[in-house]
Amino acid sequence: MSQIKHALVVEDSPTMRQLIVFALSRIRNLQVTEAEDGVDGLKKLSQQKFDILITDINMPMMDGLKLVSMVRRDEVHKDIPIVIITTEGAQEDRQRALSLGANAYITKPIQAPQVITKVKDLLQVP
Amino acid sequence: MAKGKPNPKGKTEGGGIQFERRDEVLQLFKRSAEFYEDLLKENERLRFQVAQLDQERGQLRRGLEGAGLLVELEKQVQQLEVERRSLLERFSAVEKENAEYATRYAEIEEQHNTLANLYIASFQVHSTLRFREVVRVILEIAINLIGIGRMVLYALDAPHKRLVPVTGDGIREALDFAALPTIAVGEGVVGAAVANNQRYVADPPLPDSNPLAVIPLVVDDKPIGALVLERFLVQKNAWSPVDFELFTLIGAHAGTALVASMQRADRPDFIPAIERLKALLAEEE
Which of helix, strand or coil describes residue A4? Predict the structure, then answer.
């Protein structure tokens, strides 16, 4: 029996959050937790061990890049795979996110198969 | 016969005759020996020929057997060739089937993606009766699901037949809606789209296409405003099939959601009584 994996989706847009969760629901044995912004995301990360983090960049309270840099300093989650899903399509934004420690960078509008493939690759699940 | 009488066969009747006979016998033996030798030689020659013939026959038999094997092998090769062609044909057919399945799978994935987008857009548009929330959802759909970087939402000022900019969104730039001009219904691309209740889409979109699209927002086939899409996000430069489906959904649902939320805003504590619901149902019948 495959081990259950846990994903945290941090996205302030309910529409986008629902779309990402909908896409991730197609990955077997993946449980998804939602957070509305970076602060909410950090709170959820402190309460539970996650296997992957998927986050937007432009969010109120705390943006995604700040969240990424804080997670990389967190003892429990410093090695967690991080996927950025954002409207920011400029090359410098991508480079900045990757240099801060993101593992993948996907721009909106998303295609569900693209997100599914990337998350599966990072989780190393079939 | 008188004694000493000459013999026609020789003078010496006694020893001469014996000598002659002896010679004759010797000659006979000699000829016999020669004949025998000849026979032996002939026999040896014939035996050699027989041996040669045996050898040739053996070679011939082996040759015939080899030829039979060759024929058998050729037959097998032909059968294998037929099998090979059959397998190649089958392989080709399976490859074609696989390609068809892959295409079909991609189509289903695209349909699934489209349906997910439409379901979520519809769900979110109708998830609230708060006006600001409805507006936010409409803009979110355009940004996140379509990939629009700048847009303006116009409301119809019906008495004056003008479109008034009310809100919008622009990534990394603040839109000053107050500074935007109103548009007369029928005027320009935006006004014409609303006047004709027909969406406009620059397809294919060009770098200088502005607007990219105008989506009249309608309630009961009457326009109440328009969503004008002005610029893509930097990473997008073309429409995808799902965009057109979302245009249809926005046109049909966004207007209804906006009007419902405005009515709800007018009467924030309104909860329809059961009598009123029954009366409405009766009216519908």
Answer: coil
